[in-house]
Amino acid sequence: MKVTEKNKETSSPSQALNRQVMVSVSHVRKAFGPKVVLSDVDMSLHKGENLVVLGKSGQGKSVLVKCMVGLLMQDVGSLKVFGEEVKDLSEEGLRQLRIRTGFLFQHGALYDSMTVGQNLQFPLTRVLKLKDRTEIEQRVREVLEGVGLPESIDKMPSDLSGGMRKRIGLARTLILKPEIMLYDEPTTGLDPITSREISELMLQMQRKYQISSIIITHDMACAKITGDRLMVMNDGAFIAEGTYSELENSEDALVRSFFI
């Protein structure tokens, strides 16, 4: 069944507040030398929620999600994932966090020298250290079915379209069964039809696996399809949040400008 924008109106920020907090960010600041990228960030992500983050380029959106998995560390403030302060985690703690948190960045590439099946097996054998071939093959088949590409298992990445590579990239992340997904511009470079298909697939994966997701995007069609709640970032801090329809009708001209 096709997912429509109307289906998304069943969720609201007030409903999200009643759910478990998966990510909590309080007064986070991050600078690179004299350049302040995150000035005073407060936000939370709730269990099973899709949170869309909007903002012009260079506002610190990608820096924020990299702090969430310990690829960068904030200078000031608290950033907790699964209730634990990320900056205080040990190397093993960070490894476990990254297993539970999948991230699909804009230029997340597949290994060109490996088939699709081998690309999907790689995180299972290298990250989870699985050795049971039956379990590995079953998980590969399951995620390929999930993204609608079971026939691609023996293909090389060069044989796939851009949209298919995005689907396989998503499958490679989902194969570790993450509880949180961080998407950075997941539909960039795709035509409108393929972009919509990827957006709907993200929504289906959220519902199937009860994944909590943060979605950074400039694609407003993607935001409308996937977002339970939207937040707008400007000058390194969040300036507005609400549903798609609430922000589309905001009295703030900057907020409305994203919807034109």
Could you outline the blueprint of secondary structure elements for this entry?
Blueprint: H1 5-8, H2 13-16, E1 21-32, E2 35-46, E3 50-54, H3 61-68, E4 76-81, E5 84-85, H4 91-100, E6 101-104, H5 116-126, H6 133-146, H7 162-174, E7 180-184, H8 192-209, E8 212-216, H9 220-226, E9 229-234, E10 237-242, H10 244-248, H11 253-257
Parallel strand pairs: 3-8, 3-9, 6-7, 7-8
Antiparallel strand pairs: 1-2, 1-4, 4-5, 9-10
Helix pairs in contact: 5-7, 6-7, 8-9
Q: What would your notes on this structure say?
A:
38% of the residues lie in helices and 24% in strands. A hairpin with a 2-residue loop joins β1 (21-32) and β2 (35-46). The chain is globular, with a radius of gyration of 18 Å. It starts with a helix and ends with a helix. It has one domain (5-111, 179-257): 3-Layer(aba) Sandwich (Rossmann fold). The model is unreliable at 1-14 (pLDDT under 50). It has helices at 5-8, 13-16, 61-68, 91-100, 116-126, 133-146, 162-174, 192-209, 220-226, 244-248, 253-257, and strands at residues 21-32, 35-46, 50-54, 76-81, 84-85, 101-104, 180-184, 212-216, 229-234, 237-242. With 260 residues, it is of the alpha/beta class. The longest helix has 18 residues, at 192-209. It contains eleven helices and ten strands. The strands form two sheets. Strands 6-7-8-3-9-10 form a six-stranded mixed β-sheet, with helices on both faces. A four-stranded antiparallel β-sheet has the order 2-1-4-5, with helices on one face.
